């Protein structure tokens, strides 16, 4: 099966308030259109399942909500080695963070993982179960986050 050169993964849950921002950014990119060789994937909240979407891709851009560390609506970019680790609680297979999932995938199937992974994160005001819709600051950040993802798509591999 042929895989795309660049895979953009929109992560999150639309039924948890600001946590749905990754999906909203992905939908904006779908509306605008992307070049050939780019796959847009609604990944949900996959844990280790995140790796399934990456197998065979050359590059992956993950778009996700980020809790804390700055004002809601701030858009951040992390290379794989910069992704913060999940701390302060025991992990289950459903609670694996992006960094942990990538480390596991690189150990288990190094040849199948992408050469490069970048995260575009949007800092959120909070998440609320069974609440649809983004807070105003996070909704206002969707166009900037989509622009940053598009820049990643167009960037030469290996260029910071």
Q: What would your notes on this structure say?
A:
β1, α1 and β2 (38-44) form a beta-alpha-beta unit. Strands 2-1-3-5-4 form a five-stranded mixed β-sheet. The longest helix is centred in the last third of the chain and has 19 residues, at 136-154. With 160 residues, the chain is an alpha/beta fold. The chain has four helices and five strands. 36% of the residues are buried. The termini are far apart.
- The percentage helix is 25-40%
Quickly give the CATH architecture of the domain at 1-13 and 32-44 and 59-85 and 108-160. Answer: 3-Layer(aba) Sandwich
**CATH class wording of the domain at 1-13 and 32-44 and 59-85 and 108-160:** Alpha Beta
Strand content: 15-25%
Q: How many E-type strands?
A: 5
Neighbour order of strands in the largest sheet: 2-1-3-5-4
Q: What name does the CATH topology of the domain at 1-13 and 32-44 and 59-85 and 108-160 carry?
A: Rossmann fold
Question: CATH-wise, what's the superfamily of the domain at 1-13 and 32-44 and 59-85 and 108-160?
Answer: HybD-like
Number of helices: 4
Largest sheet: 5 strands, mixed
Overall pLDDT, averaged? 87
Which regions contain 5 or more consecutive residues with pLDDT less than 50? Answer: 88-94
């Amino acid at each position: 099966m042929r895989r795309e050169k660049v895979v953009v993964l929109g992560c999150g849950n639309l039924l948890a308030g600001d946590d749905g921002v990754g999906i909203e950014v992905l939908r904006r990119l779908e509306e605008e259109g992307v070049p050939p060789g780019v796959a847009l994937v609604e990944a949900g909240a996959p844990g280790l399942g995140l790796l399934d979407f990456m197998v065979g891709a050359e590059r992956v851009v993950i778009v996700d909500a980020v809790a804390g560390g700055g004002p809601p609506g701030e858009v951040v970019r992390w290379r794989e080695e910069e992704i913060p680790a999940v701390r302060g609680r025991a992990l289950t297979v459903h609670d694996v963070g992006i960094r942990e999932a990538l480390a596991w995938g690189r150990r288990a199937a190094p040849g199948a993982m992408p050469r490069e992974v970048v995260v575009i994160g949007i800092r959120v005001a909070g998440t609320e179960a069974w609440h649809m819709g983004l807070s105003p600051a996070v909704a206002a950040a969707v166009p900037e986050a989509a622009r940053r993802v598009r820049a990643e798509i167009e960037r030469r591999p290996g260029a910071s």
